[in-house]
Design goal:
The protein has seven helices and no strands. By secondary structure, the chain is mostly helical.
Length: 168
Amino acid sequence: MTIDQPSPADVQDANTLLRRRESAMRDLIATHIAKGLASREQYRWHAAIDLLRALDAADINVDQLVDEWLEENGWDPRSAYKTPASLTPAEDPWASRPDITADVPQPVRQIIVERLADMLLDRSDDWHAEQARRFTFALKHAGADLTSDIEKQITALTLGADPSDPPF
């Protein structure tokens, strides 16, 4: 019994195929990481950074491919690696901030909304109402828009619960 040796042409074809697949995989991984960095979602951004670090530790460097994708899609690569909040398109320094309302824990949000609604409804002192408005707009400017929650709380305090809402 003899073992057939592959011809040099077959080895070369297999090598070429493996190189194409490896290159395509690197491109796909780099695109996935770059989209994670540009997503403005905190958990996705951290996952992209963790994957990038793991690939670097395994001597698989895709940093240049990630940077190229970010630049081609209008992002500043240097800011993309810092924090999710610093991700702003390179061409638009006035871009709106990411919505971080969902990142505020519900118990904290409820306390803030209740206190701001009380301050806005307090007619004994205009200073409290002014401070509540300033605080609300500062939160909104930072990306935590609680205005609809405050409106609901004010409605509940002034008009009571909506009778058409089921009690459960």
